[in-house]
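Standup notes
- DV: blocked on the single-chain target, sequence here:
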Amino acid sequence: MTQTIQKTYALDKMARSRSPNREIPGALIGNSQVCDWSICQGMGSQDSPVQNHMLHHKGTAITLKLLGCYSPFNLSSVHENYPRKTLTLRLPKELDVPLERMEKEIVALVSKRSHEFFLNNMSPEQVKENYKPISVKKPRDDGGFYPRQLRVKCNHGGVHPTRYWSNQKTRIDKPETLADTTLNLNVQLGSLWISEDGPWGLCATVSDIQLAEDDSTECPFN
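- DV (later): unblocked, structure below
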């Protein structure tokens, strides 16, 4: 059986230059650069207007290691029993600029090969306009900005369901809720979804979630 090897992507290059003894919330590890990523030939039905193009770096999966992310809400989906659910995260400030830069580099990578993905050979401006980002940073009324938010998917069925871990690094069942919790996550950038008429984006799926906070409560009668 072929062993799957995952490669983590260093969004925050500055984090690698700091002391290795200091854990930086939100820092990612690895040395993969977006410009070196490979985009495979599209997969899907010939009748489907949307194709999935697998992403990899030298044959290995691309995984983001996200530390210290805040989940304000529980998992959600259009249909309650649907096994693939959306998780919205507020990112620590260390990931704000690096994640924005990563998405810009992905847009640039697709722009160079737009003739392979779209019916019409789009300009870089058109490719950028049609991109559906996985992260957003919304302005506040006072002129500032809210923390950058990232939307990812979690699978609770199928061959590769999302795994959950305690802060003691032991496997646990899926918590009843992820609302108002701080999490560490491994997020796989498995593929690009691309519509022949324009819209496109990243498929970002969580493989592992660790509860970063100690959820144990001491009995008041001890």
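- Follow-up: Residues 100 and 192 are 17 Å apart (CA to CA).
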